Each structure stands twice: as C-alpha cells, then as structure tokens.
C-alpha cells in the first residue's frame, strides 16, 4: 500500500477464539465485584464479626485467623442456606481477611511488584501506575463507607486520624508505603486514597544507569558529589522519582557518618548504621501537640549530625535548612517540587520569605548561592521513564543574580514518537566550581574524566 492512499480491502474478521480469553479474564472480576456487594457476603461478614473477638484475632497471624473464619463462614452458609460455591467462599474469606489485616480489595496490588502507585477514587475506581502509565483496574470497594473504614485504619496505625473534622492526612503503611487520604466533604466524588508504594527492590544509582534513568558519567559525578559532601537539592514534579534518587544517592554516604532524616511521612530507606529518623506530627483535636518540619530541623542541629537529609522542602523550614547548610553541615540533601533548576531557586526564595518576610531578597539569594552546590533535575517523561534531565551547579552571585551552569543535560531527539522518548545525556564539559573541593578529597581527576565522556 502506497503512503497517503487508503486501503479499501475489507478487514478480516477476528477469529472467534481471539476475543474469548479477554471475556474469560474479565468474568472473574465481574463476578467477584457482584459477590462482595451481595447480601450473601454481608450475611457471612456480619456472622464473622459477631462471632469473633477482633482484638484477640488481630494478635494472631493471618493463617491462624483464616481457619476460624472458614469455620464461621461454613456454619453461616449452612444456617442461612446460602447458595455459595467453594471458590466463592474462598473469595469471601480472603476479602474479610484483607479488611482485617490489610487494605481491603487493593491488598493484592501491594504485593504486585509492577505497581508503583495505587489511586482510589471512591468505591468504584481503582487506578494503578505501571511503568509510568496509569491504568484502570477492575477492583472495587463495597461502598464509600468501606473506603473510609480502610483509610481510618491506615491513619490509626500510625497514630493519626482522618474524619469529617480532619478530612486530610498523610500516613504510611507497615511496609513503608506513603499514603495520602482525602475524605468528603473535601473530596467531592467520594473518599480518595493515594498510595505511593515502598520499593521492595533496592534501587541504586548503578541500577538507574542500567535502566536509562541516567548515564554512567552522571552516575560518577553524583557519587563524587556525595563523597565531596556537596549540598544537593533534587528538583522535579510529583511522581518524578525525587525520593528514589535521594535514596540511591544516600547509599554513597560513608558508613561512619551520623545522619538525621526529617520527613512528613517516613519513606527514606537509608542503609547506613548511624541514622536517626524524625517524623512530623499533626496537631491533636485541641489544636496542640503539632511538630512541624521546621521544629525538627532546628532540633536536628542540636543532635550533632554530620548530614541532615530533609525528605522535602515545602515551607518556612527552607530558611533553617539553608542555615544548616551554611553552618558546617555539608553533604546535606533535600528535594523540592520545581520544573527547572531556576524554578527551584525561585521556590527556595519564596519559602525562605515565608519564614522571615523582613529578609532582603539579595540576602536570601546570597544564602542560597553559598549553601547549595548542585541542583539535580529529574522528570517523568511522556513515555513513563524517569530521567535526570539536568545537573546544574550553583556558581555564586553576580550583582543580585544567582549564577548557575549546567554540567549535564538530556537532549531529546527531534524525531521521537509520542510514546517513545529517545535522546542522549550530554556533558557540557565545563570545569565545575567544586573541582577544588574534589581535589581536596582526591577525586578531581575522576570528576574531570566523567565530565569529558
């Protein structure tokens, strides 16, 4: 067929067997949804919760409790003369166990290593992210009350609460996965649960280089940055992989150093032996008892840290972080939401002003230029791949402007398709301002060699 001409050949009908597997694959999900929303399920569930001592049951293992639930379910089926098959009974018992020990119907998604994010939009919509792309799953909750119940158990497990009077909360699961919950009336279309899964695989800079997230030369420069105790800010959008990159870089911190981490919801996975992890605390119902990131940064300075790692800068704590970086706590790291390194500098300026509006902009910029050495920009691209798009060094000040220079940049090929991004990580071959610092640590030659490749 020639380019630009239409093919009038009628399409061949698809073999009958081609559509059958999809129908068979969908049928179990449809029947499962119908089952867990049926009166039969409610009858058995009510019998189980009426017959069991839940406090005692939760002290046992899932396997031990399953035997008891199986027996109660069998008696309820016989007593009520319910028409339930053996496979349906297994599904009902699994659903009840997931409610008791897990996160309801989305429990299987937590065990799926291909899933990175789980997004619940009310009872009828559960999306997941796989390989950077969102897809709708067939899983559903019984109703909105079921979603709220799961959300409240997640929050209660880490000493937090979520209800109509406090409809938003950040929490975490037992495996370290980060959870955000928003309930009505804030969430207009039903309760929302967003789970950023804890990576079971140990993500290293070397593995990221193998996956194409960065180049071998960038890998070498980031390792040198950690070794030379540079202050690094990782910048990017939501879900771009900032925390993953921060975890990977932290593995190159020396084992003898004392590290203090500060987060809203603990998700950093530092492997060093001497790590103190601090987590913020929201206010209680009386409006007291809250501990902010700024409080924790101030306290961390009294804990004799070698490095301070802040999960994310999002407010006035930026002022205290810059103070720490400028007062001997070299090698500190943090992340920030920004689209470019220049935007990251502007956001830092704005957040410092939130802490002290009387500071002059020139003074703030001098602090940033003095405190921050590198800004690493990471982006989730349209093909779903996370890539480091730029490594920018803060050189200093020229007048009232912060001067920066790019050391690496990702150059995208112009002919790339919509679903496939191709390009190369290119070095600018500029001698970095921290080369003298690298010479002090004996790695200047390795730094120059990495920038030449």
From TrEMBL:
Pfam families: T2SSE
Family matches, as InterPro entries: AAA+_ATPase, P-loop_NTPase, T2SS/T4SS_dom, T4SS_GSP_E_ATPase
SMART domains to which the protein is assigned, alphabetical: AAA
SUPFAM superfamilies: P-loop containing nucleoside triphosphate hydrolases
Region annotation Disordered: where it falls in the sequence: 1-29
Annotated Gene3D superfamilies: 3.30.450.380, P-loop containing nucleotide triphosphate hydrolases
Membership in a protein family: Belongs to the GSP E family.
Name recorded for this polypeptide: CpaF family protein
